[in-house]
Structure prediction request, 221 residues.
Amino acid sequence: MRIDILTLFPGMFEGFLNQSILKRAQTKGLAEICIHDLRNYSTDKHGNVDGYAFGGGAGMVMMAEPIVLCIEELGKERPYDEIIFMTPDGEQFDQPMANSLSLKKNIIMVCGRYKGIDQRVRDHWITKEISIGEYVLSGGELPAAVVADAIIRLIPGVLSDESSALLDSYQGELLDAPVYTRPEDFRGYKVPEVLISGDHKKIDEWRYEQSLKKTEKRAKE
Prediction:
């Protein structure tokens, strides 16, 4: 899988992409993540990438041209399955969407800033709009990083134990059961006895019951 991320702040991705699972995926050659600075695609004599909104109003709007020029240049090298705009008013990102996107080969993610991007880009170049929650951030960089992490970890071979991703919360109808590790007794708080019993049938039953309780509790909140 290849993910191209279009942003005005490429430095925000440096640490995130070079750690943990995302670094492992790239080292193994299972994923390629390329960051593109939209300022490099400005044709404005002053290098501007944003302007005042027609009709007035507070805030600046990212210009269409730098975004479209970057998309077109990338499109000359390979076809893209999705061109995604990260925006608070997009479709809510969830596990089924992550599963679907993980099957794609090439994806572009556009990170908005300020009051967003020129609507013409959204109307004619963007194929999918995604939100990671009903709140507003300073830009689309963090959402793009979240989506990239969520989908790349699902690629076969990225995780050491491939079954781990299949057992995550939200992969099915139930949330994941509580998990514990050593020591068995931490400051008087003990691991449930069933988990150290060695009886795998009882352990599976316990985990299922705990998943039910956790899911029901979340539904009531």
Notes: The chain has two domains: 2-152, 173-220. The chain is about 35% helix and 20% strand.
